Amino acid sequence: MSLPLETVPATAIGRVPYLNMAPFFDGLNVNGGWQWLDVVPRQLGEEAKAGRVIAGPMAVADYLRQSEQFERLGPLGVAVRGRAHSVLLLSRKPIRQLDDATIAVTEQTSTSVLLLRLILEQRYELKPKAYERGPAGDADAVLLIGDDALRAQADNRTHPFEVDLAFEWWLWQHLPAVFAVWVIRKDASAEQKQQLSRFLQRQLAVNLSRLDAIATDRAASMKLPADRVKAYLQNFIYRLSEPEEQGLAKFSELVDAHHLL
Known about the structure:
Elements: E1 12-15, H1 22-25, E2 35-38, H2 41-49, E3 55-59, H3 60-65, E4 70-80, E5 87-91, E6 102-105, H4 112-123, E7 130-133, E8 141-145, H5 146-155, E9 161-164, H6 165-173, E10 177-185, H7 190-208, H8 211-222, H9 226-234, E11 236-239, H10 242-257
Parallel strand pairs: 1-2, 6-7, 6-8
Antiparallel strand pairs: 3-10, 4-10, 4-11, 5-8, 5-9
Helix pairs in contact: 4-6, 8-9
C-alpha cells in the first residue's frame, strides 16, 4: 500500500519505483505496521529529513547529509562496476566541449548531479555556465536517471552524445559507483531494524533467483525486450562489498573536498 504524502505515518518506508529497485521491492510484503511511500530519490531524502520516512534505499548524497539521523541497514544498496545505462548525460556536443554550457538536471536526482559535477569540473576541468533543475529545453545537455534515462536512451533524437556517468567514474577512479544505500532511522527500535533487514535480505535472495520472471513482467511497461531488462538488472550490485565501500568512501571524500554538499 502506498500513501499520499499528507497521510504518511512514522513507519513509512520509502519505495523508489525504478526498474533497478525491483530486486528489493518486487513481491515484498512487510507486515507489522509498515507502509510504503512511493518517492523518487531526491524526494525520499526530503521526506526523510522531514521525519516522514523511517527507512528506504536512500541516495548516497542524502545519506551523507543525514548520517547523524540514519544508519546503514547492513550491506544493502545499489551500485555498479562500469556502465549503469540509467545515469546518463545526453548532450548536443562532446563532453569536452561543455565548458560554459547550460546543463538541465532532472528533479529526481540527489547523487547523480554531484557525480556529474565531479566528472565535469574535476575529471575534465570544465566550468559549465549553469546546472538548472527541470526539463531539457534549450540546454546544451540534460542529466537523466532511472527509468526516464532508460526510455530516453531508446527515444533520443536531439542529443547525439551520450555519457554514462557510472562508466566515467569507473574509468576515472577504477572503483564502483554507489548510488544508494539502505538506511533506517537510528532511533528506530532494534526489532524494527532486525525485521526490515530480514525481510529485505530474504526478498532480495528470492528476486535475484527469478530475474527472468521480473524481466518478463516489466518488459512491456518499459517498452524494452525482456532479455535487455534482465541484463540491465544483472548489471547492478545489491549487496555492497569492499570495492563498493571504497567507491563510496572516495565519492564522499571528493564531494567533501570540493564542497558540493
